[in-house]
Amino acid sequence: MLLRLAALAALTALGLCAAPAPAEDGHQLWLRYPLLKEPWRSEYRAAVAQIVDCTAGAAATPSSTLLLARSELMRGLTGLLGAAPPLASEATESRALLLGTPRSCALLARARLPLRGLGREGYAIRTLLRRGRAVTVIAANTDVGVLYGAFAFLRLLQTHRSLAHLEISSRPHLELRVLDHWDNLDGSVERGYAGRSIWDWSRLPDDPDPRYREYARACASIGINGTVLNNVNASAQIMTRPYLVKVAALAGVLRPYGLKVYLAARFSAPIEIGGLTTADPLDPAVRAWWASKVGEIYRLIPDFGGFLLKADSEGEPGPQDYGRTHADGANMLADALAPHGGVVMWRAFVYGRLREDRARQAYDEFVPLDGHFHPNVLLQVKNGPIDFQPREPLNPLFGAMRRTPVMMEVEITKEYLGFATHLAYLGPMYEEVLRADTYAQGRGSTVARVIDGSLFGYRITGMAGVANIGADRNWTGSQFDQANWYVFGRLAWDPTLSAEAIAEEWVRMTFSNDPRFVAPVVAMMMGSREAVVDYMTPLGLAHQMASGTHYGPGPWVAGNAEPDWNPVYYNRADSSGIGFDRTASGSDAVGEYARPLAAQLSSLKTVPQKYLLWFHHVPWGERLSSGRTLWDELVLHYTRGVDAVSAMRRTWSGLAAYVDSERFAEVAALLAIQQREAQWWRDASIAYFQTLSRRPLPPGIAPPAHSLAEYEAVCFPFSPGYPGTSPACAPANPVIP
């Protein structure tokens, strides 16, 4: 990867001749629609000489969604081609563009396109011959499908794809494609690194921010169809009448773009806002209260999506407070929602009653309940068994819940991957888990096949991402973090897509189609997450961040009240070696996987090196497949991560001629921060682990710049995305990083 980046950096530094681009702040995301260069502009003008409005004589006036689709096409084509093609009621030009549904357009009804297999949200983009003229058709069974098709068509133009002989059919693999906003009612965002919440509750319902439409438009462009408006650590106030009226107003803004609203519910709401003395899910009064509250919500929001629940985790209330199960709690809410078509997304992230191994807790609590949940309940399962780490093995629940739908939850906001200041494209991370094989029904039982329902026959499917969106002008805190919002939407629509192909799409739409820019930037993105893993948690280490804030390294931290709040709990480093033994001789968490996978992970000879220390406590002097000792390999990985960031900086420094000065300078500044903090991570981690290994550094490797005591003294009690001060961080006067 380093050699490839270095070569690309050298190439881009030669003969730069592109004209300076006008300054941009990133607010337009990947929907910029800049004027295309020749010959693409002329080619596309010829291909789309006319837009046909075929709604004349339709059974009903066009919906707001269909009007949005037409408006988006006009907007996009105006920007890309310099002028919008003329709008006509009949195809009179040799190359016309026609969009709609058979219901809204008589011409499409007569065309008898094969739309049945596209479902409610899919679309077709086809080149048809009509009266000797080539007509490009964007068609779907519903208006929202047409909207998705319009964005897909514009994406072809934005990325310089051929429009000749189009024959595209696409439908979402997953039914629920949802952003989870960890936004609080006071405007703060838990684990948010892009400013305050975009939801301004004080101005709703009467004065909705125009930005809500921009948000909905961006989500629709990548197929996201749901948004959970509030934090999973929920306030019951969101379900009081004054706030529900505000939610209804927001739902009205988002609805034409195909976005349903959901709410994170607080399990104890019947007590906190309902006046009851209990929230016991089997209590008739509690069940009646929830049924009444759900009815109130649907009277205000007829297409309300349902509830997301975090219960019996991190101190949040739940059914276990009353001696009940997760199924009891979820089913109570499911019964209230079922008459209205709503769903319950019940999070399987549970910890707080630590047993031997936190990685086992979700499996131990939920597998015995498989098949006991009502049909409109999905378990929302994190991609790994602990907590959104830079790298984790697949969550064993994906292969174990055969009779209960599971939807995957990933974190788009980079809580453990450098916040908004470190460049870490998460496409390879999502792809890694989606393609991971559970072996639940033999080879090929991938996580993607689990969550799309094809492996176990789930009736309802979904994928959720914890949003990285805030009030910053660029939406996500940095330019490259926009790519993580984008890749989540594209993979939630189709989990079989390539993370690299999606990265190329995003680069072309967001920055430039010039291959001298695209190739090096895509390469930089594709290696960026691995770089973070190397300088933070190499070889299967996890949770080595400072406690509370999760900012900066803290592999030595051991003073927190709960064992699993301490990084030493996860690294298990001592004078003999490092790593968490999860084999049969340890916690036996490996036994939660199907036998072929468990056998692979249990053996030091066959476990993938990237998961080595996740499953094994390995002696410092153990020889690995590289021929190096574990200690040398660990140090080289830390160093490799820093070197990769240096290579990214060199690559970016050679690309100034291809991107506007404002965004170029911002990215360059953040890469400088990332390199400094990567060095901090590398040096602090090596300084700590060397006190235990008592081994010299490999030849040619520079020692840490400071003593371990100096690294341990570094403290930032106030960090982005963390409320208040870190309980594990005493104020100090750090001299580094």
Q: How would you portray this structure in words?
A:
With 737 residues, this protein is of the alpha/beta class. The protein has three domains: 35-170, 2-Layer Sandwich (Chitobiase, domain 2); 176-510, Glycosidases (TIM Barrel); 533-580 and 617-713, Alpha-d-glucuronidase, C-terminal Domain, CATH 3.90.1330.10. It has 23 helices and 16 strands. The strands form three sheets. Strands 7-8-9-10-11-12-13-14 form an eight-stranded parallel barrel. Helix 11 (361-366) links the parallel strand 11 (343-347) and strand 12 (377-382). Helix 9 (284-300) crosses helix 10 and helix 16 (499-510) crosses helix 17. The longest helix is centred in the last third of the chain and has 33 residues, at 661-693.
Quaternary state of this entry equals single chain
Q: Report the strand count.
A: 16
What is the fold-level CATH name, i.e. the topology of the largest domain? TIM Barrel
Morphology: globular
Structural class: alpha/beta
- Major sheet: arrangement of strands: 7-8-9-10-11-12-13-14
Average pLDDT? 94
Strand fraction equals: 5-15%
**Total of DSSP H or I helical runs spanning 4+ residues:** 23
Task: Give the count of structural domains.
Answer: 3
Terminus-to-terminus distance:
26 Å
Radius of gyration from CA coordinates: 26 Å
CATH class of the largest domain, anyone?
Alpha Beta
Spans where pLDDT lies below 50 across 5 or more residues: 9-18
Residues in helix, %? 25-40%
Question: Which superfamily, in CATH terms, is the homologous superfamily of the largest domain?
Answer: Glycosidases
CATH architecture heading of the largest domain: Alpha-Beta Barrel
Report the biggest beta sheet as strand number plus sense, adding barrel if it closes.
Answer: 8 strands, parallel, barrel
